[in-house]
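Handout, page 2. Input:
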Amino acid sequence: MRPIEKVSQDTVWEHWRQIEEHDSCDIRSDIRKELPTDLQWYRCEIQPGDPGHLYVISSRDWFTITNGTFRVIDAVRNLENISGNNKPGKIINDIREKIRFLESGGELDRGLITITDSPSLSGPFSIIEGNRRSVAFAYRRMLSGSIIFVGTSPGVVECTWAKGPYRTFLENR
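Output:
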């Protein structure tokens, strides 16, 4: 990741609020309440080698979609293997709709929100907002050059939303 500028947490939450077209300042408190309180936020540009260090949020659905790795690139590999009316199937169908939208010339916001324990911004990066879009962007090879938000804190390794990705990352070091 190439850091562009340091930003306030309020800037990140406002971006999230706008993405989800939410009226409340309490956007996604279910996710935010589990985050470390000492996150330092940056606006960064994804570099060509970074997509392999991007991980979706740690949840059962994404465990199934990625075959337990939580890696965005593994979600892309499994797009054709998952279907159905269960929650993973519905997530995949939504991703496929996003891909079709992008292929027809549509645009989606690329401002993903990620967290890492790496003060040098070398990853791994757990996506806390934009998981489905990230898979669609990865499928279309649109991640490099995207400007995203990255929050850093040593406490990320213990964060509920990053535990699966960090386990995978450490196993594959």
